[in-house]
């Protein structure tokens, strides 16, 4: 029997190089701003999608969204109360948005998971979590086979929210209020390629309005569903 090599929880050359390449690309893009957060690499860019593109994606989410589950599949009903769905990668707009994210970050399209849409109505939220996989999780051996650890997350706000709905990074003491069309991109790894606990984040409850986002998580290797 061969032992599983659990390398997703420690520093890694591959993940370090992914971090460096994306950081270099975003740092030289004048349209992209780095958010000042010690210990976390996080960037924003306004007007990444236009109003029509946001509206079309919201309509797709409205037609397909189901109550969200946690990655572990656990039925923790008060932890992630939004509705969500995978968006059809063969749809022209969905594939254009994925390509645009890859062009912005330089990340390979085949490392990206399916674009996921999410809608938060009044009071709905996604409590504090990390997007990287804990190597102690029972699903980690399966994730290793489908592309390994998650490196960067790209998330686009598809609607403004009157009150609440901010993306909160509690260890870094800042939150980002949703701005329609804005993309937020962060590295879930530290510069050395080890998981970064400071990437912990939450979607704060919506107090007024409806929040829509799309999220794309990138793996360190080619993602196979
Ligand atoms: O909706 C947000 O602001 C955060 C969403 C999120 O954390 C995720 O999709 O992984
Ligand atoms: Fe997340």
From TrEMBL:
Gene3D superfamilies linked: q2cbj1_9rhob like domain
Keywords: Dioxygenase, Iron, Metal-binding, Oxidoreductase, Vitamin C
SMART domains: P4Hc
Segments forming domain Fe2OG dioxygenase: 111-220
InterPro entries: Oxoglu/Fe-dep_dioxygenase_dom (IPR005123), P4HA-like (IPR045054), Pro_4_hyd_alph (IPR006620), Pro_4_hyd_alph_FE2OG_OXY (IPR044862)
Cofactor needs: L-ascorbate
Name recorded for this polypeptide: 2OG-Fe(II) oxygenase
């Amino acid at each position: 029997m061969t032992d599983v090599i659990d390398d997703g929880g420690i520093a890694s050359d591959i993940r370090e190089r992914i971090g460096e390449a994306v950081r270099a690309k975003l740092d030289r893009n004048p349209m992209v701003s780095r958010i000042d957060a010690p210990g976390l690499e996080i960037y924003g860019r306004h007007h990444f999608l236009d109003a029509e593109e946001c509206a079309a994606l919201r309509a797709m989410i409205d037609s397909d969204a189901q109550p969200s589950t946690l990655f572990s599949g656990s039925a923790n009903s008060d932890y992630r109360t939004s509705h969500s769905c995978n968006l059809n990668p063969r749809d022209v707009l969905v594939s254009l948005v994925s390509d645009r994210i890859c062009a912005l970050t330089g990340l390979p399209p085949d490392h990206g998971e399916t674009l996921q849409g999410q809608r938060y109505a009044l009071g709905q939220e996604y409590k504090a979590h990390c997007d990287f996989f804990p190597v102690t999780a029972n699903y980690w051996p399966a994730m290793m086979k489908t592309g390994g650890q998650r490196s960067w997350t790209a998330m686009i706000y598809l609607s403004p929210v009157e009150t609440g709905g901010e993306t909160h990074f509690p260890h870094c003491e800042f939150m980002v209020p949703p701005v329609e069309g804005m993309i937020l991109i962060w590295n879930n790894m530290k510069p050395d390629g080890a998981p970064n606990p400071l990437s912990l984040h939450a979607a704060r409850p919506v107090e007024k309005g409806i929040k829509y986002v799309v999220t794309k998580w990138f793996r360190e290797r080619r993602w196979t569903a």
